[in-house]
Design a protein that fits this description.
By secondary structure, the protein is an alpha/beta fold. It has two domains: 2-177 and 189-205, Rossmann fold (3-Layer(aba) Sandwich), CATH 3.40.50; 218-547, no CATH class. 65% of the residues lie in helices and 7% in strands. It has a six-stranded mixed beta sheet, with helices on both faces. It has a two-stranded antiparallel sheet with strand order 4-5. Strand 6 (106-110), helix 4 and strand 7 form a beta-alpha-beta unit. Helix 3 (90-100) packs parallel to helix 4 (115-121), helix 11 (334-350) runs antiparallel to helix 12 (353-384) and helix 13 packs antiparallel against helix 14. The longest helix has 47 residues, at 501-547. The radius of gyration is 27 Å and the shape is globular.
Length: 548
């Protein structure tokens, strides 16, 4: 469940804005959306600094929407106790969002001249949207309508931003100040084109994105990894006892191998995650914008933004590969990412359709095989992980430690660490199996998607086998996302039974999006668990160092 917090401020001594309408439009778009159950909407009006800070700290929203006035470099306009104008400086805002960065994914500053604040906040928050000049009240409302319409339909932040920008463009027919057509005399109605009179909000993306996993699992995982780390740290201290040292040194090679395996697991998972970002944040959006390119000016702008995002992800891949463990394969496919970025930049610089097609071709080839290859390496490494064996080995040490050590607190800490390691081992086994299964589903759906625009034959042939593949994946009846996915499958199954191509294509698109969303959730959970295991590898390294 994602919480959206709106913060509105329109002091008595500033020009009146239609903030109530803007907030009403946001709430309506979310309530009417397909994924309305995935969002909680909270609003705070006439906010003062204390109100704003308390709401963000206590509610811990995933998305923050500020609507009101901006002043450029000075800051955003809030209210004071008398309802008058009070400027909140950029530095204070930046400090606040640095503190809350672990749980805030996106900040939307729907206020004039808010670029300075957006740039400062984007140092800490994944996605920040601001205005580089004044924005008309109607434009601000139109952008909010489009943004939350797309968000509620399951689009990414970048996709929602693109929709909001197009909403501004389509909202007007060249008029800037008045909605009264009579005010323009007998002039010919203008076409719906974007002019300098209409501000297009700018999206700023943090260089290294924070991964947001399932909030329900996060405290449990963190507690387990902390206990495991504490248990291994206690073992390091217990090694000062000669009897314990002699007992532990027998497992020296096991400790070393496990630490290396976790490092390898982390390497493959990082690369897999970056390729997933390429697909979600770049590839799908590029393909969508390509349909309007080159006749749509907004498509050109958005393709340039996606090109910058692709360049950033490519740089992240290069950093990961530079840390490649000895037993890992390198990433020769990096050149495909670099080639795709070069072709995409040529397409936007020269308004060249052929270069854009070449960029999409490079990305399509890359995403057709490399995620599967990385997934194979990841799952094979995880399956070979000797974490369960290490848990058993440490368990055999417990009687000797109880007999040799009088410090009951340290012994208890060690025992709790073994229990937590066991929990992490079980969790890893389940996640690897689930991730592997949904990866296979994703690969099948991607192949079907390629030819679906022509006919539904591939889908109809693959459907019986796909249903058998997903059947065991719907065991967790308590998972609302999984239940939603199963409902989408049933609607697609009904459409196929009716042999209605239009309905089949429609319900396949919904099913594909739901499957991708759930796969992304499993992916994020595995990423988080890999991060927890990485922390444990540091404790293992200390043990290895002591007994080497």
């Amino acid at each position: 469940m994602k919480t959206i917090l709106t913060l509105a401020a329109n002091p008595d001594d500033t020009s009146a804005l239609r903030l109530n309408r803007e907030i009403r439009e946001i709430e309506t778009r979310l309530q009417q959306s397909k994924y309305r159950d995935e969002f909680t909407f909270i609003r705070r009006d006439a906010v003062r600094w204390d109100d704003l800070q308390r709401a963000i700290l206590e509610i811990k929203p995933r998305i923050i929407h500020f609507c009101g006035h901006g002043t450029g470099q000075s800051g955003l306009v809030l209210e004071n106790d008398q309802g008058q104008c009070c400027i909140l400086s950029t530095d204070i805002l930046s400090d606040l969002f640095k503190q809350v960065a672990p749980h805030v994914e996106c900040v939307l500053l729907n206020a004039c001249h808010s670029k300075e604040q957006a740039l400062a906040i984007s140092q800490h928050i994944n996605y920040v949207i601001g205005m580089n000049q004044a924005i008309a009240d109607a434009d601000a409302i139109a952008y909010a309508q489009g943004f939350y319409l797309a968000l509620g339909a399951g689009e990414s932040i970048q996709g929602a931003h693109a929709t909001g920008c197009r909403q501004i463009q389509s909202h007007y027919c060249g008029y800037t100040d008045s909605r009264d057509l009579s005010a323009h005399g007998d002039a010919e109605p203008a076409v719906a084109v974007l002019s300098n009179a209409h501000t297009i909000p700018e999206l700023y993306v943090k260089e290294t994105l924070t991964v947001f996993a399932d909030p329900a699992q996060e405290p449990k995982l963190r507690e387990a990894s902390n206990d495991a780390h504490a248990g291994l740290t206690a073992l390091v201290e217990l090694l000062a006892n000669p009897k314990i040292y002699e007992a532990v040194i027998v497992f020296r090679s096991d400790f070393k191998v496990l630490a290396e395996q976790i490092q390898l697991l982390s390497y493959y998972k990082n690369l897999h995650d970056l390729l997933h970002k390429v697909e979600i944040e770049c590839y799908r959006n590029i393909v969508q914008e390509a349909r309007r390119f080159p006749t749509d000016d907004m498509a050109l702008t958005m393709l340039a933004e996606y090109g910058m995002a692709l360049q950033g992800i490519t740089a992240e891949v290069c950093k990961v590969v530079a840390t490649r463990p000895e037993k890992a394969y390198d990433a020769p496919w990096i050149h495909k990412l670099e080639d795709a970025h070069t072709k995409l930049q040529a397409a936007t610089d020269n308004v060249d359709v052929h270069s854009l097609q070449q960029a999409i071709f490079s990305l399509t080839q890359l995403l057709a095989d490399q995620p599967v290859r990385l997934n194979t390496s990841l799952t094979e490494t995880a399956k070979a992980l000797r974490l369960a064996e290490m848990v058993n080995n440490l368990g055999t040490l417990q009687p000797q430690i109880y007999a040799a050590v009088s410090d009951s607190a340290k012994v208890q800490q060690f025992s709790e660490g073994i229990s937590s390691l066991s929990s992490l081992s079980t969790r890893l086994e389940v996640l690897v199996h689930t991730h592997d299964a949904w990866q296979e589903v994703d690969s099948i759906l991607r192949r079907i998607e390629v030819n679906l625009h022509r006919d539904t034959t591939d889908l109809e042939w693959a459907w019986p086998g796909l249903k058998e593949l997903t059947k065991p994946l719907y065991q967790d009846v308590s998972d609302p996302m999984l239940l939603s996915q199963k409902q989408c499958e049933q609607r697609l199954d009904d459409a196929i039974a009716l042999n209605d191509p239009v309905k089949i294509k429609h319900h396949f698109c919904i099913y594909r999006r739901a499957a991708l969303n759930y796969f992304s959730q499993v992916d994020l959970s595995l990423i988080q668990l890999c991060d927890e295991l990485r922390d444990i590898s540091q404790s293992l390294a200390l043990v290895v160092e002591k007994i080497s």
